[in-house]
Amino acid sequence: MAFTLQPGQPLDAQLRRLGLRQIERAGAALADPVTDAGIHDARKRLKKLRGLLRLVRAGDEAFYRAENERLRDAARRLSALRDRAALRQSLDTVPVPADQPGLDRALKAVRGALDRRAKEAGVADAQDALAAVRRDLAEARARLEAFVLPKKKAGPKGAGRLVADGFADNLAAARRALAKAGKSGRAEDFHDLRKRVKYHAQHLKLLSPLHPAPFRALQDEADALGEDLGTDHDHAVLIAAMASAPDEFGPGHPAVAALLAGRQDILRKTGLLAARRLFAEKPRAAAKRLRGLYAVAALNPEPGPDTAAPDGPDDD
């Protein structure tokens, strides 16, 4: 099932179809026995669902705020379970300079500290967190199943205006986050930029039937930028962890921190350039363009959800 909106169909019905699919897949990913891969997949599903809701938030602001808060809390619970594995994986991707042979020992010590932290994580706490997430998913399902838009908002004209405004709102927030990150250089500001990039990629995917080839190319750029900014965030978290517990990570951890900081510098420079290209269009112009594209696509709809072929392994 492709994670896309079809302009010829009622918007609220599509929201229910796509959203419930993400909830179903998130629940399946968290079925016992729960693995790191399952937690990672469930987090991705929650992000896609939040991106979907953000795109149509103007249709029912109260519904959006309540469900976004619920899904955000669920994602935070999963993040606490996933972060240590993510830090280890990000560390394993860092190229090690050939002229620093002692760095291998330092990296091994840091990896060992991360592994110990993962093993020491409380099993009971993890089970409590997973139980809470499953409750969140059940409540989100019940709310989404009952979601209905007024007829004027669900039809092609109203739907086009809704999604165009949602796209433009996130674009405006992304441009603000970009300016702030570029000026401050702070890890938290780059992390906020990454969130906006992720939403932008999801919106491009959802709206790809409006102009398939250009939107999919832009989505690829946004996905790549999101991955780079995610690596930057993982490095920032690990650097902070080593600084807060230096004895735990071994005497060579400053060299590892310097290696990560050097990688961050490259990721941020290239990331800012990519983000400036990605978010070059002004929100008002983007909204106007999307309303026109939606109207055109609604007159020439693609096949419905039962016959539309997914174009990638993660489309659902």
Give a verbal description of the structure.
- This protein is an all-alpha fold.
- It has one domain (11-299): CHAD domain.
- The chain contains 11 helices and no strands.
- The longest helix has 33 residues, at 212-244.
- It is globular, with a radius of gyration of 21 Å.
- The termini are close together.
- 35% of the residues are buried.
Structural key phrases:
316 residues; mainly alpha; CHAD domain; 11 helices
How would you summarize this macromolecular structure in one to three sentences?
This protein has one domain: Alpha solenoid (CHAD domain).
Task: Give the SSE map.
Elements (H helix, E strand, L loop, with lengths): L10 H19 L6 H20 L5 H32 L10 H18 L2 H23 L5 H4 L1 H29 L2 H20 L5 H33 L8 H26 L4 H17 L17
Helix pairs in contact: 1-2, 1-5, 2-3, 2-8, 3-4, 3-5, 3-9, 7-8, 7-11, 8-9, 9-10
Please give the number of β-strands.
0
**What is the CATH architecture annotation?**
Alpha solenoid
Rounded to an integer, what's the Rg over CA atoms?
21 Å
Total of domains: 1
